[in-house]
Automatic annotation (TrEMBL):
Entry GO MF terms: serine-type carboxypeptidase activity
Keyword Signal part of the UniProt annotation: yes
GO BP, one annotated term: proteolysis
Lineage, top ranks: Bacteria, Pseudomonadati, Bacteroidota, Saprospiria, Saprospirales
Keyword Hydrolase tagged: yes
Gene3D superfamilies on file: alpha/beta hydrolase
Originating organism: Phaeodactylibacter luteus
Name under which the protein is recorded: Carboxypeptidase
Length: 503
């Protein structure tokens, strides 16, 4: 590994010098830094040693000009072959570091949290992650430019990376250059993204495939492909329709529906039917609903969601997610979680229209962030002088460009969607498989939105069958829920084994 480190340093210095000789007014680009260690994980009784790298790669643009120190953590099984699968994983945000997947389910260590309650203060427990897939695949955790250790260098600016297309391009460049650098181009390859990371994944599928780098599989955790579904925009009723089944799931969990005697999945089938056959036509009819129809619709919505019929009528049958969080348990002085509606927290504003906090985020953020930074500096050996940034929203000037090629009509952005990219990649590569993992209690990226998108990709049946849907009785980060951790491992491991030819 020492020889490899020297090669990294020589490559970085030569690139920096070349860039400087071409007239870099900012001076010499400092070399990327990589910190090496050996990590261990025990999975199903098997002790596995891993060569770990944490640091940055000197990312180059299409003209080989340095543009970023791109942060990553790489786990490679000792003695593994180049034919071993490799997974590139990232979180969402749109600009969040990868600590959540890293310490939640994918890395060799996981942080213990009190699901579905609040975790106490430090010390936090970092334990062996028996639910990882490191026994069958190597792993690269990616931190996009703006988070982790990733920063622009040379003539590049933050804005060159902060946008839908800019993000797809830079991560695509990183994956290609990393595969070349590590001699892994011919390995079975996978993308794994969570939340906005699935939106990114759909674009990356097409971007990489168009460059001749086809994935064996793509894993979507808590997915969204059409951002319009989440925005509750004026005059756009689709948001209310796709959120309704998750409102129902949340109310069922908290004992607020008229269907408590039904099993959850049977109840959600009924909620889907209601949304399609009764709720959608009513919203389409709009102000033409009669008084009797309004009364009937309010009562039915109340039965499914636990909110009063009067509340639904006063909301004109359109309740936004933040309003639902606040209203469901208002009488108990509590609000439910956005990322995971099993979590509840104190609602300080008893008359507020919308929740001003997310109990699940409040409950787990401190343990994840603190435990990861402890692991990064103490376990992975990263220089403490390097600042690791967990989210970009605190960065001065942070602004995301939501424009995406193909989303425009009449020179205006009509949608915010990477669903067409996914459909294009699947159509061009009939061997490509997609695994989508959905949390029933996820009120950030709701499962019925994903189902709607998949049902409207316009794919022939034999291609659509390449999309596999799995469901969890948990939320956005289903891996905080112990039974879902085991299911996650089983679903992802089986998917990788089947699509890599190892099974």
């Amino acid at each position: 590994m020492l020889q490899k480190s020297m090669l990294f340093l020589v490559f970085a210095l030569s690139s920096a010098m070349a860039f400087s000789q071409k007239g870099d007014t900012a001076g010499v680009v400092p070399p990327a830094r990589v910190f090496e260690s050996v990590q261990e994980v025990t999975i199903e009784g098997q002790r596995i040693s891993l060569d770990a790298e944490a640091g940055t790669l000197l990312l180059r643009d299409e003209n080989d000009e340095p543009i970023a120190h791109f942060g990553y953590t790489y786990y490679q099984r000792q003695g593994g072959s180049p034919s071993r699968p490799i997974v590139f994983a990232f979180n969402g945000g749109p600009l969040s570091a990868s600590i959540w997947l890293h310490l939640g389910i994918l890395g060799p260590k996981r942080v213990v949290v009190n699901d579905p309650g609040y975790t106490g203060p430090a010390p936090y427990a970092l334990v062996n992650n028996e639910y990882a897939t490191l026994d069958i695949a190597d792993l690269v955790m990616i931190d996009p430019v703006g988070v982790g250790l990733s920063k622009p260098v040379g003539k590049a600016k933050w804005k060159d990376f902060w946008g839908v297309d800019q993000d797809i391009r830079s991560i695509g460049l990183f994956i290609e250059q990393f595969l070349i650098q590590e001699g892994r181009l011919n390995s079975p390859k996978y993308l794994l993204g969570e939340s906005y990371g699935t939106f990114r994944n759909a674009g990356l599928m097409k971007y990489l495939q168009d460059k001749g780098i086809a994935m064996n599989g793509v894993i979507m955790v808590s997915a969204v492909f059409e951002l319009n579904h989440l925005l509750f925009a004026p005059g756009y009723d689709m948001s209310y329709l796709v959120f309704l089944p998750t409102y129902a799931a949340t109310a069922w969990y908290h004992g607020k529906t008229a269907f408590q005697d039904q099993p959850l999945e049977a109840f959600l089938d009924e909620a889907r039917r209601f949304s399609e056959e009764i709720y959608a036509p009513a919203l389409l009819k709009g102000d033409r609903l009669t008084a009797a129809e309004r009364q009937s619709l309010g009562e039915k919505l109340s039965a499914y969601t636990g909110l009063s019929a009067d509340f639904w009528q006063r909301a004109n049958f359109r309740v936004e997610a933040g309003e639902f969080f606040q209203e469901l348990l208002r009488g108990e002085g509590q609000t439910v979680g956005r990322l995971d509606s099993r979590f509840t927290g104190v609602s300080p504003d008893g008359i507020g229209q919308r929740a001003d906090r997310d109990p699940q985020s409040d409950a787990i953020s401190a343990p994840y962030i603190t435990a990861f930074k402890h692991y990064l500096y103490e376990g992975l050996g990263v220089d403490p002088a390097l600042t690791y940034t967990t989210g970009a929203y605190g960065r001065e000037g942070f602004k995301w460009d939501w424009g995406h090629q193909g989303n425009y009509r009449w020179n205006a952005q009509a949608v915010i969607s990477t669903a067409p990219d996914m459909a294009d990649a699947l159509s061009k590569n009939p061997n490509l498989k997609v695994l989508i993992l959905n949390g029933y209690y996820d009120l950030a990226t709701v499962f019925y939105s994903v189902e709607h998108t998949i049902n409207h990709l316009g794919l022939p049946a034999h291609i659509r069958d390449n999309i596999i849907m799995k469901y969890y009785e948990a939320g956005h980060m289903m891996y905080t829920h112990k039974p879902s951790m085991q299911q996650f491992r089983e679903d992802v491991s089986s998917f990788i084994l089947e699509t890599s030819g190892l099974k």
